[in-house]
Amino acid sequence: MAALINVPPKAKRGDIIEIKTLMSHIMETGYRHTADGAVVPRDIITSFACRYNGSEIFRAELFPAIAANPFLSFFPIAADSGTFDFEWTGDNGFSATATAKITVE
Amino acid sequence: MRPVPAMATAALLLAMLPGHAGEIPPDARRSGTSFMAAETRAIQDDDSANPGMLWALDGDELWRRKVGASGQSCADCHGDARDSMTGVASRYPAFDRETGQPVNLEQRINLERERHQQAPLLAYESHDLLALEALVARQSRGLPIASGTDPELAPFVARGRELFTRRQGQLNLSCANCHDDNWDKHLAGSAVTQGHPTGYPLYRLEWQTLGSLQRRLRGCIFGVRAQPYEFGTPELVELELYLMTRAAGMAMEAPAVRP
Amino acid sequence: MTEAQTTRRHVLALTAGAAVASAVPLIIVRPAAATPATLAAAIRAVVGTAVVHPGKVRLEIPPLVENGNTVPMTVSVANPMTSEDHVRSIHVFNEKNPQPNIGNFHLGPRAGSAQVSTRIRLADSQKITAIAQLSDGSFWSISVDVIVTLAACTEELI
């Protein structure tokens, strides 16, 4: 599944940076029906977490009200050079990860 | 008792108008972008927030994947799409010499797979076909639309224009009735645009996914209560071709976002 | 199913106002919406019996929404975000979707700015409520009214 991550490659220590994430996912609500009345079962991403050099800095619980191909943007502080790890988990064992590096001077 | 739908009333009023008022003057043409709310435009303008770019990302991976009996990838012949595909989408649908007909980008991708990769064809509106199309179309972003200049295409453009101006369906509306004569008015809360295909394939908020121009055309034809043509039929390709010539010179925006 | 019932269902598919897109043709059967009671219960699950003060939270959402399927939303709290004084979490609720929750966002002192943007679905014109919990345990909230206009044509994958 494609993920689009936007993390500034460089930042100054103490800067507030914006991270934007976009993940491919249908986010099927579980409230739609087929023509013969059967419910289309829920299939959504239920949680997203971002770790910065191993420590969790942001976590989100998502519900069917989040639009398809969920977009999330948040604002960490640039502390040390290193890695951001992103993880999405959801229904039906959905699991996706991504990483991005940052150089902090 | 069923209430009379708003569209039926609109259709009655439009049917009373004298006929096709005429094409939009070239300098009065506006892309669908200009009819959108600012926040929807903001999604389109940001490549890290535009969901259509997810398909272009996948397309990039598919471009380099070896497929079929040939064991070749698109990249093996065409190199980096960022170089070789510049300006390609802006002149589609294009004339295919072998079949003597215009083909759209989706058909061209499948013809390449069939003729050069000996790979199975990709279904219309399938994820993989849309991803490759999004990748190719993205390489024409900002370039002026230049389809239909091949003289062999003239009879097909004419047929497309005829399809565009012909009333159809239970609501007895032609594309021109709304998109030439009544653009910038509203239909049930949505803006009626001029109908220029500047952004395809595009992420439609209504679909919550990326889709092709043919999907949009079928949706509109269904909306006037006519039987939509199947994907890939000559009528839809001719309509696409006419729409692109009608938008000649306008900048490509693919993959766009639309409400 | 009798002939008449099948016909009504088909008509429902053609005239329903909301959007559908899928590999299978879909009809819309409006499920029970979040009631004031379910919304209150969802909020209580977060705040318990604590008082929720209006203020401090900003909720940016277009007042007139072009398409309820994808609505950009930004929720933020002006806050120094230090270890002594920060936003622990922000919870967003709605009143008329089938379910009262939209998202819960967990921040903390390593978050530089208490600001989160996402895109949400709104089933109808309704009130959206955001509640933030600060590091001192207090709860603050804001509510915004949004008008949702639906698209003109029924959209099925055809």
Walk me through the structure.
- The complex is a heterotrimer of chains A (105), B (259) and C (158).
- Chain A has strands spanning 3-6, 10-11, 19-23, 33-34, 45-52, 55-62, 71-76, 82-90, 94-104.
- Chain A is mainly beta and 105 residues long.
- Chain A has a single domain, classed as Immunoglobulins (Immunoglobulin-like), CATH 2.60.40.10.
- Chain A has a 5-stranded mixed β-sheet, with no helix packed on it. In chain A, strands 1-3-7 form a 3-stranded antiparallel β-sheet, with no helix packed on it.
- With 259 residues, chain B is mainly alpha-helical.
- Chain B has 2 domains: 28-45 and 145-258, Cytochrome c-like domain (Cytochrome Bc1 Complex, Chain D, domain 2, Orthogonal Bundle); 52-138, Orthogonal Bundle (Cytochrome Bc1 Complex, Chain D, domain 2).
- Chain B has 11 helices and 7 strands.
- In chain B, the strands form 3 sheets. Chain B has a 3-stranded mixed β-sheet with strand order 6-5-7.
- Chain C has 158 residues and is an alpha+beta fold.
- Chain C has a single domain (32-148), classed as SoxY domain (Immunoglobulin-like), CATH 2.60.40.
- Helices cover 16% and strands 39% of the residues of chain C.
- In chain C, the strands form 2 sheets. In chain C, strands 2, 4, 6, 7, 9 and 10 form a 6-stranded mixed β-sheet that branches. In chain C, strands 3-5-8 form a 3-stranded antiparallel β-sheet, with no helix packed on it.
- Chain C is globular, with a radius of gyration of 19 Å.
- Classes of the chains: A mainly beta (105), B mainly alpha (259), C alpha+beta (158).
- Chains in contact: A-B, A-C, B-C.
- Chain A binds chain C through residues 15-17, 29, 31-35, 37, 40, 52, 55, 57-68, 70-79, and chain C through 9, 13, 20, 22, 24-29, 31, 69-71, 81, 94, 97-99, 101-108, 110-113, 115-122.
- β7 of chain A pairs antiparallel with β8 of chain C.
- What is the arithmetic mean of pLDDT of chain B? 92
- Give a count of the beta strands of chain A, DSSP E runs of length 2 or more: 9
Strand content of chain B: 5-15%
Low-confidence segments of chain A, given as residue ranges, are none
What would a concise description of this structure say?
Chain B has helices at residues 6-15, 38-45, 52-63, 74-78, 81-84, 105-117, 127-138, 154-165, 175-179, 213-223, 234-246; strands spanning 94-96, 101-103, 186-187, 190-191, 202-204, 209-211, 257-258. Chain B has 259 residues and is mainly α. Chain B has two domains: 28-45 and 145-258, Cytochrome Bc1 Complex, Chain D, domain 2 (Orthogonal Bundle); 52-138, Orthogonal Bundle (Cytochrome Bc1 Complex, Chain D, domain 2).
